[in-house]
Design a protein that fits this description.
17 helices; globular; 5-stranded parallel beta sheet; binds iron/sulfur cluster; 4-stranded parallel beta sheet; alpha/beta; 13 strands
Amino acid sequence: MLLRHTTKDIKERTALTVNPAKTCQPIGAMYAALGIHRCLPHSHGSQGCCSYHRSALTRHYKDPVMASTSSFTEGSSVFGGQANLVEAVSNIFALYNPDIIAVHTTCLSETIGDDIPQIISKANEEGKVPKGKYVIHANTPSYVGSHVTGFANMVKGMVKYLSVKKGETLNTLNIIPGWCEPSDMREIKRLVKAMEIETILFPDTSDVLDTPLTGKFNMYPKGGVALDRLKLTGDSYATLSLGAYGSLPAAQDLDTRHKVRFEPLDMPYGISASDRFVTALKNVSGRPVPASISDERGRLVDMISDMEQYLYGKRVALFGDPDQLVPLSEFLVELGMKPVYIVTGTPGKCFEDRMAEVLKSVPEAKFRSSADMYLMHQWIKNEKVDLLMGNTYGKYISRDDDIPFVRFGFPILDRVGHSYFPSIGYQGAMRLLERILGALMDRQDRDAPEEKFELIM
Ligand code: SF4
């Protein structure tokens, strides 16, 4: 009963967050940076921040996450971190030889007011950046936004520093996948390959954070979008941005800088969002949808129609990231379920507007951005749900209130599978559905009286 102090009595809070449904911006910036081939993320702040961000990612992906830090001490906290960063850039290229360093700030360096573009210029002027190598940056103070906005800021930084327009439009389609698992990025690449569309997916953490065990340490695994490909994004014929929070800012910036038109989409979780993604791929590229993808969709529909009776009317509480919660809630509605309580810690009105659209058929639904898990738990205390979906932190609510729990989102610290098996696309939706059904039917088995305990359900 770790959460025994959660009460039914809900009081509006403005200055207190309890059990936040988000984590800090630099984690997202670090994750995005790992999606560039031979990139070393660099945390401009004190060592503790960098250690926390690395360990959060390492625990979720179960792979070592490399990153460096400006190692602020009392002196840099007072006088600024310029000297530390310039020296760090020089040391990193000399010792670790990345092709690119992606610098993100922390609360401390933002509060001091370090001017990172000016410091990067100084490092370039002093010859600390070898020819053909790059230093890019994103501002990620953690007292605003969340890990999702940190991810978005770094992806936008990739566009700002690296995309080039040479003039000739190429036969490449940019896809910005949003914060999803390496398995999901691999799945997106599989779908576009099946449609024979040439794409530049950025960032791309497949083969970076889901690498095979070979017995040899490789500081820069084979995955990640290549720098040469990133530079071409300014000449692509279009961009598909998946998720309003994680991907849209970079797509808008590409359009503003290089006139690359973009189509904003939801992340393709569930049937309708996957349909919109596949349709957009077809329309923008002119390539037909192959029978293999239609068959995947058909198998998903078949699975739903076989099992719909176990899902109908089930009340679900969800928490996590807005770009995932919107299509996931839409999918649950398609399954006949009722997403009734949904919170994200990430701020932004767009989430609430989209949820209002998606949940038109669930009038009792409550949803809120800039909210915490404590509020969601209070809603649950007032009227129970049949299923809880969210990251590992939900296990306390699940245990205290005896609710079946499906782990989804970031971070997942106590299970495996998320980085290997996709949740995106039709095949991903089948896996999601299998996990939801598993949780609900296990509970039905557990609670059934002996005379109703069935072999065939
Ligand atoms: S919230 Fe700020 S101080 Fe804390 S770990 Fe994140 S960046 Fe560092």
